[in-house]
Amino acid sequence: MSAPDEKVQERVRVKKQEPELYKVVLLNDDYTTMEFVVTVLESVFEKSPAEAFQIMMHVHTNGRGIAGVYPWEVAETKVETVSGLAREAGFPLKAITEPA
Ligand code: TYC
Questions:
Q1: Residue 81 is inside which H or E element, if any?
Q2: Whose Cα sits closest to atom 4 in ligand 1?
Q3: Going residue by residue through the chain (100 aa), what tens digit of pLDDT does each one get?
């Protein structure tokens, strides 16, 4: 027989490190079509058509708006994806990251 306190696993609550979150902010411009922005919001940021339209209109009206909030590497990748799609399509659409 083992001592009473052997084999007893202590439950240690380990605080998990939360990943630092960043906003991906979409910027308005005068040349990118509304349709293209909606498509980007749906395909890159996984928004529903209704939400994508709402965010696009918010950016169009206010100059900028949050497309999503992600851990740093994901946010950076989204920004690069937007930049690549915009370049291919010949639009100046720009997204930036900001600490959330
Ligand atoms: N302002 C653009 C237009 O009138 C539409 C637009 C919306 C562009 C959002 C960029 O992030 C943007 N065609």
A1: helix 72-89
A2: 30
A3: 344 455 665 677 777 788 799 999 999 999 999 999 999 999 999 999 999 999 999 999 999 999 999 999 999 999 999 999 999 999 999 999 999 9
The closest residue, in CA terms, to atom 7 on ligand 1 is 60
Q: What does the block give as tokens for 87?
A: 């370049």
- Is residue 38 within 8 A of residue 91, CB to CB? The reply is no
Verify whether ligand 1 is closer than 6 Å to residue 26 (CB atom): yes
35 lines ligand 1 (CB under 6 A): no
Residue 82 CB less than 6 A away from ligand 1: no
Per 3-state DSSP, what percentage of the chain is helix, strand, and coil (rounded to 5)? 40, 20, 35
* The ligand 1 atom nearest the CA atom of 93: 10
Give the global pTM: 0.86
